[in-house]
Specification:
mainly beta; six-stranded mixed β-sheet; globular
């Protein structure tokens, strides 16, 4: 059964025809009024049998500047819900790695071709947990599904905005920092711009690497 993502997307708003070089050929490309992404993966199933889907490629969308039928959609920090205590949050998957999905528009559907996970310079996956004090911490107290406190993470990112450049790299805004991260794809680590006035040098120049870690083809 197909599951519709709740970002029935601004691809929709692009009611125009694009003429670009595509696969070395010049072709006319017409965008539909609306396109849906289908069949999101199951992140986990709760003890009560509730399935949580990774249908959250909805924080940002960027068109590929080189291929008119390709769009990049990005998650935020992962499944979460506000806790009962002041400024608390319950994280459904503390190990969730924020990611970008590469989608291709085919027959009015957005078909996932590739998943690109955020990693740090050491090749370790990032996560969606709040940053520690001194890194632009949000001040949130974070709990897991068993009501246990989760420690902040220096590798936490709350990805919100994204731009895809013609050279294949991504600029991603991080709501925690606030930071603006320049991710490579996937040749070498690039730096982070921070908007904080006074932070340690080790924080100010955090390095990240964005390799392609998985290729998946979903049938619409």
């Amino acid at each position: 059964m197909k599951k519709q993502l709740l970002c029935t997307l601004a691809v929709a708003a692009m009611g125009f025809t694009a003429c670009k070089k595509h696969h070395n050929d010049s072709e006319s490309f017409t965008y539909p009024d609306m396109a849906e992404a289908t069949d999101p993966a199951v992140l986990y199933t709760t003890a009560q049998g509730v399935k949580v889907y990774n249908g959250g490629f909805g924080s940002a969308m960027a068109a590929d500047p080189n291929e008119p039928d390709v769009f990049y959609l990005m998650t935020d920090r992962g499944p979460n819900v506000a806790g009962t205590a002041n400024n608390s949050i319950i994280i459904g998957r503390p190990d969730f790695c924020p990611e970008i999905g590469k989608y291709r528009l085919k027959d009015g559907k957005l078909v996932l071709e590739q998943v690109i996970e955020f990693k740090n310079a050491a090749g370790i996956k990032l996560n969606g947990l709040p940053n520690p004090a001194g890194m632009g911490a949000s001040g949130e107290t974070t709990y897991d599904l068993n009501d246990q406190v989760i420690a902040p993470s220096a590798d936490g990112i709350d990805s919100e905005g994204m731009v895809r450049l013609a050279d294949g790299t991504f600029w991603v805004s991080d709501e925690y920092g606030p930071h603006i991260v320049h991710f490579d794809a996937p040749v070498k680590p690039l730096s982070v711009l921070t908007l904080l006035a006074a932070v340690p040098a080790a924080v100010k120049f955090r390095l990240y690497l964005l390799p392609v870690v998985q290729t998946a083809v979903w049938k619409a």
